[in-house]
Structures
1.
Amino acid sequence: MLRALASSWLVCGVCFAANAQTLPLRQNGVDNYAIIAPGAISTSIDLWQKGANNVAVTRQVGPVNSMDVNQRATNSNTAAIDQYGVVNTAIVTQQYNFRYAPNYQSGYSGQQTSYGYLSEFNSGGVSILALTGSSNTLISSFGRNH
Amino acid sequence: MSGVKALFAILAALGAILPLQGRAADVPASAPSSQGDSSTAKKADCSSLYGSKFFQLGDTGFCGKAGYDVMGFAAKDFAAWDIAMVGQRLPSMTYAAGVPVLFYYNRNFGAQTFYPYPGVDAQVNFMAARQTEAGPLVAFVNLRFAGQFQSTLDGGVSYVSNNAVNGSIVEGLVDQAWVRLGGLEAGIQPSMFGFARWGYSITPGYSSLVDTPAISYTVRLDDIGSAGNAASASVAVEDPSRRDMADGVLARYAATRSPDFVAQARFGTPSLLLHVGGALHEIRDEAAADCCSSPVNSMWGEAATVGGEYRIKWSDLFGGAAGDMYGRLMIQAAAARGAIGYLGIPFFATDYVADADGAIHPTVGYSGIASYEHLWTPTLKSTLTYSIFDTSETSGVEDLAPGVPMWFDVRVRGSQLQAGVEDMLQPDLMVGAEAGYTWTTASGSYAGASAASLQVGYPTVAVYLRKVF
């Protein structure tokens, strides 16, 4: 009986995560860094990285956490995944010697998503993406006055 | 309010409640005591002692002078794009405070700079002076209201103050308010670090010229070598908060514990003025401490400057062919480490970066300015000013996760060329125009990988009408 209850809880949790809207994140710079640490909410995130070097550092602390990391690199793939939830699922796929068309465009964007604040910095092949919750979003903006 | 801030607040209040105007240099240091018998004689004494604009202040023994300087202008900023900075602390599995990183990018300012904008820079001041046994007693206050109306991102119009202090227009209203007895001066006064001006142009070049609550002491030696030569040395404790360059994320100052210690030495002849200055600026950071309970980390930032101004009568070099043309040239350079506020540059770098473990990385930089003013006729002059700056801001190597290090190294450089012409329509009424061009370049690397270099440039133009008394 206890086993059945646990199984149904797990299935229910997986269903919840599967039903939650998955946030797709894409990077195709030369050196890609994704730092994903949303707040204490259930999150489902799909991260794709294509580049020479890919780094994914994720930390999910919601009740139901789903992380799908897909890395394709010519040199190196690194994934560090922490999940502290009741139901956690993580899939990591890493491929090497993978050809890609790097994005050398430059720019910065920041926007609020349902999973937290998403910032993306791209410059000359360096791509740094961060998804943060309300308690760990520490961002400043400054420069010349106009 | 920290003890140091409270002390400076008291000094500022002390300076503000006393009757004031003018600059200390306007009052002869060795003027004798004036004690006439009749009011006419007293008025004559004030004029002869301090200048024609001074008058007797009742029977107080003080001479006073009131003045104003009002400039209205219209300007156009053609910067559709400019470099902007973003500081962020990236979440880390290793450090609760987060790993600091500084981004740069091209930001669109087109909505704010599309229309020309009007502005004003109005100052009114009052000085009172008298001789005492301890030396000249001088009090001065200058109230300043400077700002402009400009478009906002949402299509509206807002007033932007050019002299707000810590975001407060009211606090910035009291530009100067100080009392001096002999060589001792207390109140809101020009910092001892800065040179006499930020170039001869109307719009400032890259040079620090800050009024700040302070206590200073100056010793002066006259007639060194020959008549007209003088030297002075000054020391001051100044309000550090007006120099802080912090964004609250990469750098966040804890409560002030120590004032800035500033020293200055000058040597002057009738045609030459040389200036050297230095400052120590305490850094006490809490950007990391708030997050991970690490202790407040501190160090001393430092800055130094050298400058010189030379005045020339061109007929001394070229004879009568040069007519009555005069000129003056100023050159100044400043360097700073952990005290970028002393460079007088746009906010492209914080004073320092606090690593996630609390370690402080001071930002280094320099600025320089060369400016020339040419007096073609007694009423017509032109100016040319060129300024540069360079900052380099870095962080330490810290782990986003075990074995995943991150660090950054961002450099921002810039230069600015300004040219202006001004005509005196009538005594104390000037009309002028100025044009400038600004260049800025940013480059950097992240975890050793080079990012793209960004360059922007844009012109500016301004016309103005200025009335002084």
2.
Amino acid sequence: MHWIALQALPDAVVAGDAPDSAPEPFGSAAPAPADATAALGWWALQFTPRVAQVGPAVLLEVSASERLYGGREHMLACVMAPERPVAHVQHAQAATSLVALALLQTGMPPGVVEPDRLPLATLAQAKAHLPTLERIGCRVWGDLRALPRGGVARRFGAPLLDALDQAYGLKPEVYPWLLLPEVFDMPLELSAQVEAAPALLFAARRLLGQLQAWLRARRQGILALELGWQMDARRNTASHGQLLLRTAEPTLDMQHLQRLLGEHLGRITLPAPVLTLRMRSIETAPLPSASTSLLPDELHAGDSLHQLLERLAARLGPEQVLRALPRADHRPEHMQTWRAASAVRAPGNATAGGNTRRPRGTAAGTTPAWAEFYPTWLLATPLRLAVRQDRPLYQGPLTLLVGPQRLEAGWWGKGGPDGHADVALRDYFLARSEQAGLLWIYRERLLASQAADAQQVVGHWYLHGLYG
Amino acid sequence: MASLPLVLASDANAAVWRADELAHAPAAVLATGHAALDAQLPGGGWPIGALVEILQAHSGQNEWRLLLPALARARAGPVLLVGPPHMPFVPGLAAQGLACERLLWITAATPASRMWASEQALRCADVAAVLAWLPQARADQLRRLQMAASEHAKLLFVMRPAAAQAESSPAVLRVLVAIQAGSDALRLELLKRRGPPCTQALLMPARMGRLSALLARNQGRAGYAPRPLGNLSDSAAPVEATHHALDSLAGAA
């Protein structure tokens, strides 16, 4: 049996003691987890399944996995390597857990101190009897052990004797081993009431740090999480609030989540001060393990596209970040629909998923020949042009170059209330304007029912596209 | 030892840029697709990782025909359009090589949000190019974009009104685009480049590919007035009307 005891040090203590020797965990700006001991325990589960949380310390029983890590020293080096959720950790190791804990509390280097000479204050079960033990001259473990067992059991109770036996390895040590929760759900009581939603981000960062430790231990990425908060009930307003955050791909990148949270929190106004926060994982997925490249060229710095789109959508609103969907239709205004990029699947996935909405003409690589005559800009609503002497005007008279190209489509649609809204009866022309360059205009042809009299069948001129 | 100064001298020669020649391209460039323009640009193409400013009187008028050949050839990846003046027409763009999947349209309205979105896009690893319409950008804001573009080696084109040519700009390349009077040809003036000032304007063919062929074929008919079409109220009208149109086309040719 070999035990390693770990204890997270508060940042304030470390900052005062040794400002230089601060290893950076998980990159520079990783937030500290909300519950450092639990995060440390979850992280320690990668070394051994026998991890226990005892008070503020975490115990690891590593005898079974020492060999995997190449020996005791090497294992300890792995445990103390800087990639852990808590920046500053104190450690001790011994053959039994109680000795390891005692060494952790005294802060003495292991091996120097024999168990007999450890102060009794470091034994949890002896704490209640410390004054009495002090008065009978027992200061170290060896003093207590020298006393007759029967008397000790009668005077101080059996648990103290049991603890002493366990500390010396005479009795087995059993702990409730730490289990990784299936769902991340962690409350955080705020140290002060928070009035403004953006200020919640500071506390939420600590929950994100905890979430990261949990995700790493489960080897998962987060897809959806919920940040809830409880507000002061004395105000006669809603007492709860929550925010649902989704990402397109499972992620471990807390920086990205933090920026998304910041954008969303920036738009929330709190009706009452917030007292507690709670973060819950809604959906996780296994992380795709990216194969790393040996070639430096392939490593390009920056965010991935889905991160960019999510960030843009979070600040500008999803309706402002658009991706086009091609459609099979002859009416130009129906050839494409612009949808929120979050609602349209990424093109890489779309082909894999067998997207059947792709019209025949626009399949990859084959564009119809006549598409080269299309303009590059389309007006969302065609602009009606004035006419002078039978010539349409747009920033001056237009010269018709090519046409007409007749379009008769949309008669199959239901249309609007008048029954003709979707019907397109048009003659398209390419026209040139001295000022505006090449234009795509059409002249409407009216249905018989629309024409005011039988002679008037030619409708107005409209500007529909620009050759930019 | 005697050869050492010579070697040094030739190295130094290579490193010295003379003000009367075009700068050597330190970074990558992307051929513009217009040979006449390539010859006038340092390195022979649009600089990658630098701000290129395109100035024109009316936004939306000329940028696609100037940029599409290069964008079609750029590395695969999304092209972000930040605040374009009109709705991009996907079939028209796809026909000229810019696939539908690559287009992303950011309809941010305010200048600040356009600036922010452009800068964020430049920081994304997957994005191939950013086209931003920034009529009201200040020089310090453009400088930020230029820094971001050079840091992440992205193609960045900023479209600005022609009136902005009097303002100072951190752009590496400034191109004033206009339509040549009397024709549809493009007239480019390189207001700023890394090299000697370009004194004469470049004239570029109006249109590319089949569209130019179509226009050339119809050259002689320029200015014809559309004939008023006949009565279409009866059922045979569409066919008849088509005949009318063809007749007029044949007559003019």
